[in-house]
Give the backbone structure.
Amino acid sequence: MNVMTKAPTVYPIFVPTKMSLHTFNFYLVEINHRLLLIDAGIDTDKCWNIFQDVLLENNFTIEDIDAIILTHHHEDHIGLVNRIREVKEVPLYAHEKGVKRLKRDEDFLEKRIALFADIFTEMGCGVEAEQEIARLKQAKIDNASQTILGDIIPIRGGETLFGFDIIETPGHATDHIMLYHQPSQVAFIGDQFIKHATTNALIDLDSNRKRTLSLVIYEASLRDLLQYPMTIAYSGHGEVIEEPEEVIQFHLKRIERKSDKVLHLLREETTIAALAKEMYGKKYDTLFTLVMSDLVGHIDRLEKLEKVTKRKEQGIFYYKRVDK
Ligand SMILES: [Zn+2]
């Protein structure tokens, strides 16, 4: 077998968590005589120790790592980058849209929080929005230590890196990518899909500082992936996926079913916040961002399908079902 077509050798690092995600996964990958690290776990001693164990068991050291590639900027995928680069200055590759996030650019984060305040107002959130904005402001201070130090090499969809095609898969995060090894049909999918759980299409902003249609974009990315045959998909959480197409189809159906449920609840004209309270009860408070992301995502989707329309009154959007 030609060296370029040989499937990469994968050494998974699975870090168990009590969270519903089950595990934080990242991968040491040997390909064409290079050793890559795809994602970098979470910044805890437990994660660091498990990483060290996997290196040791396979006769590697940090010195052997040639590059780190991130599937997206979320904290549970970048955790050990700084620790690793204290030992060796390993080149770090990330999608260009993730760079400001990884650098925790002050101006970028400030403006982002201000825009989130506007978005929550439009959704009809009151006190909960104020609490969430206060939480985001506090997180900006608390998470300063997560800033990625050193250079980040920006990458884009359509490029290839160490034999992998970089495929943009936005939705869960705007900078989300999949790494696809076409000859062996092996994919590193980050959080694009997870076997046992639904990937959240989180509220986000595009480069024009407008709210993105995260779920619509996510669903399109997921559907797009069906054109890449996969023998195995290495996911950011939970099990390695041996039947990727089935899992993709399952999640696509799940999105449709959930939209139907939301549409059903939309009996009379209402705001997203009111609908969230009705649908989620207490979770509206405790899981505010996730609940709002989920609901606004389905409303966007239904609007796109022309099943829902909206009007704006005094800065708040009111949605209603289109009865045909
Ligand atoms: Zn994740």
Observations:
- The pocket of zinc ion is lined by residues 74, 76-77, 191, 236-237 (CB under 6 Å).
- The chain has two domains: 9-103+148-255, 112-139+266-321.
- The longest strand covers residues 23-31.
- The chain has eleven helices and 13 strands.
